[in-house]
Each structure stands twice: as structure tokens, then as C-alpha cells.
TrEMBL record:
It comes from the Eukaryota. This is Variable surface protein. It comes from Plasmodium gonderi.
Length: 177
């Protein structure tokens, strides 16, 4: 940033003595935000400049993707403020059409990763159904084992009963005295 020429009207010139150094990525973000707010001034109802509208929209989309990568709350708040100002100024346009090259309303930057969210939910649903299927299969196997065990016990009881009924038992009377 120190190698950049300072414009006397910019925030960077005012703050240059108070800042030791800003890394290049922060400087580029601030420069794009500055450009975004400067071009918004040209989007007043009396100007109806579609070229600036397209530039604003492209710049906004680029900054939104940066904010999602950085996950910085203050950066998201600044973009939210810009979005609100943009939406109020564009609503006053009379010559805006859907073919202007940019939307009439900027939407929030918080819902743009919907594909990741839907993919994650899809994976979790399939994982849970797979686990449920495995548990159901184990429960089914345990149920079959219990039935087989019950049949085995019944068979043992039946065979013992038959054996006991068919055999002549001698009672020893001398043990009774």
C-alpha cells in the first residue's frame, strides 16, 4: 500500500500516518469497497446510468465471494449496508428494465452457499438412512435368531415329554419307608 499514490480526497491519504502498513489483500478489498461506494453515487435516480449499474453489480458479487471466504462480520455488515443503500436508490429508477444487465434488488450474501448446504444435508440423509438400514437388518437377524432359539427350546421340551411319557418308570418303594 505504501507504494500507491495517495489521492488527497481518499480515506487512505487521511489515515496514512496512523497505519503502519496494510497488507495487499486488505488494501485491495478497501479499494474495491471505495470504488463500490463511489459508483453508487452515480446510481441516483436522475442519472439512470446502466453501465455503472453493471460495474456496481459485478464489483458487489466479487466482494461477496471474498467476504464468504474471509468470514469477517464487519466486512459482511459493510456489504449489507451497501446492499440496503443500493436497493433504495435503484427502486427510484424509472428507466430500469430486466435487460439492463444487473438486478434491481441485490440479495443478501448469506444465502449464496446454498449448494453446499443442500449437498451436506443430502449426505447426512443418506448416511442416516444407511445406518438405519444396517440397524434394521441387525434387528431382523436378532429376531430370526430368537425365533430359532424358541423353536429349539420347544423341540427339546417336546422330545423330553415324549421320552418321559413313553418310558415305563419303576418306583422304588423302599425309599418311601
Amino acid at each position: 500500500m505504501k507504494s500507491e499514490d495517495y489521492n488527497h480526497n481518499s480515506v487512505f491519504y487521511i489515515c496514512k500516518n496512523h497505519v503502519v502498513d496494510i497488507n495487499d489483500s486488505t488494501y485491495n478489498i478497501m479499494k474495491k469497497l471505495n470504488y463500490l461506494y463511489e459508483t453508487r453515487l452515480y446510481l441516483q435516480p436522475y442519472n439512470n446510468d446502466c453501465e455503472n449499474g453493471v460495474k456496481c453489480y459485478e464489483n458487489y458479487i466479487e466482494l461477496v465471494s471474498m467476504s464468504q471466504e474471509l468470514n469477517n462480520k464487519s466486512f459482511n455488515d459493510v456489504l449489507g449496508n451497501y446492499k440496503n443503500q443500493y436497493n433504495t436508490s435503484i427502486k427510484k429508477w424509472t428507466d430500469w428494465t430486466e435487460y439492463s444487465g444487473f438486478p434491481k434488488i441485490l440479495y443478501s450474501s448469506y444465502g449464496t452457499h446454498m449448494h453446499k448446504l443442500s449437498f451436506t444435508s443430502l449426505i447426512s440423509v443418506y448416511t442416516l438412512s444407511f445406518i438405519r438400514k444396517i440397524n434394521f437388518k441387525e434387528d431382523k437377524e436378532n429376531e430370526v435368531k430368537k425365533k430359532n432359539k424358541a423353536k429349539t427350546l420347544n423341540n427339546l421340551f417336546d422330545t423330553e415329554q415324549i421320552n418321559l411319557c413313553d418310558i415305563y418308570h419303576e418306583v422304588l418303594y423302599n425309599t418311601l419307608i
